[in-house]
From TrEMBL:
This is Ribulose-phosphate 3-epimerase. The keyword Zinc applies. It is an enzyme of class 5 (isomerase). Keywords: Carbohydrate metabolism, Cobalt, Isomerase, Manganese, Metal-binding, Zinc. A divalent metal cation binds at residues 34, 36, 75, 202. Its EC number is 5.1.3.1.
Length: 246
């Protein structure tokens, strides 16, 4: 099964010192940087967009290959995921993870006029992300059944298949919420069918909840408050990694 990947969420970092926070967390043992993009529509909170990603990107060395150290894992909690793919690619995003729930109702505004309003299916969006040279992730909220993913994962067209699935373990929108163990059967079901798939969990992960998540089969671990609120982030990141590696 795939390696342990620890992805601190910079949502809990000091936004006034974001570049430094990013380089610090990498120096403390992080593998990826989890970058939470919220638009105030898909979720009831806002963060920042591509211009901020462009400015923090030089503070972290680019990964040398897919899934490598320094991967910018952009979690797109936004209503129109197709619309922002190009901007985020230019900003230095390596893995563009959109929400299944948003893809269904998204408008395709990537035309020069920006007026096209065709629906975007997850597989079309995944293909588009791949065409721009990024990895593609698909996220599901707690109320979304894992069953919506089987058809997408079983697609015989490899360019239209996701590289990662993100199972939310809180309702997206805010850091520091309580971990929902109720979501772990989704992780187990995915891991059983796909031994090599990158499965990410996000929300409420800490030294207290990591064993459950790792036991279910998650290998990409997002942690915001647990890392940025820690006295010793090096120790927390190491403990998260040890739990996944078993
Ligand atoms: C929540 C975000 C998470 C958040 C996690 O909507 O997607 O990435 O930063 O924060 P913690 O780890 O504090 O639950
Ligand atoms: Zn996130």
């Amino acid at each position: 099964s795939p390696p342990a990947i620890i992805a601190p969420s910079i949502l809990s970092a000091d936004f006034a010192e974001l570049g430094k926070a990013c380089s610090d967390t990498m120096g403390q043992g992080a593998d990826w940087l989890h970058v939470d993009i919220m638009d105030g529509h898909f979720v009831p909170n806002m963060t920042f967009g591509a211009p901020v990603v462009t400015k923090i990107r030089p503070h972290v060395d680019r990964p040398t290959g897919a899934y490598g150290r320094g991967t910018f894992d952009c979690h797109m909690m936004i209503a129109e995921p197709k619309r922002w793919v190009r901007d985020f690619q230019k900003a230095g995003c390596d893995l563009y993870c959109f929400h299944y729930e948003a893809a269904l109702s998204s408008t395709a505004a990537d035309t020069p006029s920006g007026t096209s309003t065709s629906q975007t299916s997850p597989k079309e969006l995944i293909r588009f992300i791949h065409e721009l040279g990024m990895q593609a992730g698909i996220a599901i909220k707690p109320k979304t059944s894992v069953d919506v993913l089987w058809e997408i994962l079983e697609n015989p067209v490899v360019e239209e298949r996701p590289d990662m699935v993100l199972v939310m373990t809180v309702e997206p929108g805010f850091g520091g919420q309580s971990f929902m163990a109720s979501e772990l059967p989704k992780v187990s079901a995915l891991r059983k069918k796909y031994p090599d798939l990158h499965i990410e969990v996000d929300g409420g992960l800490s030294e207290k909840t990591i064993d459950q998540a790792a036991g279910a089969g998650a290998n990409v671990i997002v942690a915001g408050s647990a890392v940025f609120g820690a006295k010793d982030p090096v120790e927390v990141i190491a403990k998260l990694r040890d739990a996944v590696e078993g």
